[in-house]
User: Which sequence fits this backbone?
């Protein structure tokens, strides 16, 4: 079974530029998550989708971050404009369904450096 | 809100030593508890989980028991190997399946 795919793996941009990340979850997984992992910290949830609807985006900085999952499969996360503090690893995860006991499967992440 | 506290690291052990990594949590309701591991150059992967009090999760020689009375989920392994060198994250979910992670701890095992 293919895992969660993410691209690109690495990205370097100047501050105030825009950037987009792509995620393809495990086939059949209804729930998709985007996490931000700053160096030395645990991942922090940015947004959670159930099919193509948003379940939780309370931690998403909506003035600069946006995310969509239009057809309930792939998802993109965009940052515009980027700030220095956005340098982090952006992780995508998916699970079969909602529910506290569901296992989330993580992709390899996209490492973003903002200069 | 929910939170997870892990012991400070890093931890360095010799091969075949006993490992304990402490994890305590604060949560409302009845969370599920997880240990995730991140090997060098790889993504996060589930190591083990427990979904109710007194459950024991186990995998690859690692174990952790869900202790509601002490709000803890400590990770243990009787004999670590060099290949266990990684970053370990304790995490919990509430009913909405939002994962809350601890800061992680780096384990280095020397031959």
Assistant:
């Amino acid at each position: 079974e293919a895992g969660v795919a993410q691209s690109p793996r690495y990205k370097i941009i100047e501050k105030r530029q825009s950037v987009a990340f792509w995620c393809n979850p495990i086939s059949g997984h209804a729930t998709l998550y985007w996490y931000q992992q700053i160096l030395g910290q645990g991942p922090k949830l940015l947004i959670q989708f159930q099919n193509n609807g948003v379940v939780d985006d309370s931690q998403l900085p909506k003035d600069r971050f946006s995310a969509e999952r239009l057809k309930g499969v792939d998802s993109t996360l965009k940052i515009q404009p980027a700030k220095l503090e956005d340098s982090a690893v952006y992780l995508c995860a998916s699970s079969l369904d909602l529910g506290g006991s569901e296992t989330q499967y993580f992709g390899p992440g996209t490492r973003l450096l903002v200069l | 809100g929910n939170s997870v506290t892990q012991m400070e690291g890093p931890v360095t052990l010799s091969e075949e030593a006993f490992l304990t990594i402490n994890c305590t949590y604060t949560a409302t309701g009845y969370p599920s508890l997880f240990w995730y591991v991140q090997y060098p150059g790889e993504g996060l992967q589930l190591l083990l989980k427990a979904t109710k009090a007194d459950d024991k999760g186990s995998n690859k020689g690692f174990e952790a028991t869900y202790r509601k009375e002490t709000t803890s989920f400590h990770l243990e392994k009787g004999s670590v190997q060099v290949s266990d060198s990684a970053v370990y994250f304790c995490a919990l979910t509430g009913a909405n399946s939002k994962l809350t992670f601890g800061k992680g701890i780096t384990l280095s095992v020397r031959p």
In short: Chain A has a mean pLDDT of 93.
